[in-house]
Amino acid sequence: MKAVGRTVAQASASTRTTASVDDAPLEGLGPVVSPATRLVVLGSFPGVASLQAQRYYGHPRNHFWPILSALWGVDLVGLSYPLRLRAMLDHGVGLWDVYASCRRVGSLDSNIGSARPNDLARLRQLAPTLRAVAHNGGESARSMQRTLALGVEVLRLPSTSPANASWSFDRKLAAWRTAFERHGVA
Description:
This protein is α/β, with parallel strands linked by helices. The protein has one domain (8-182): 3-Layer(aba) Sandwich (Uracil-DNA Glycosylase, subunit E). It has seven helices and seven strands, in the order ββαααβββαβααβα. A four-stranded parallel β-sheet has the order 3-2-6-7. The protein starts with 25 loop residues before the first strand and ends with a helix. Mean pLDDT is 88; it is low at 1-14.
């Protein structure tokens, strides 16, 4: 299964990671899905660390990769990014964000402005076996009306961001496990 979207090797080394109001918008990352993807996790927009690394969930304190590691019994954190993506796709999970570009200083979702949405309808073509969309956090979930139009189950999961400190790792893991088991990707 070939991943769709940019990989680390294809990423530009000169990608801007933060913007002022007068700067050109920041550009997000492409979709990482395959025809066998059954569940797509949608974030809002990559944070500074993710844009710098050109990797989804690139902040070392983000719980996304540790949660998937716990669900699948594989140390994804210890793998290279391309191998993480391969393992994820092999489990039927894909990644993308609701915003293609935006203006934002820092990494907080509350600072997102002038957001341009991704063409989420493309997910039906890229992942014809898609059964569910899981929004990773509140900002992503603001696009639930758009993802409901895909005709699949739409879920809101607790954000894996380090900014979501009110949820413990174990509490996040339990919520994610329930969703992933329900769709046969745990």
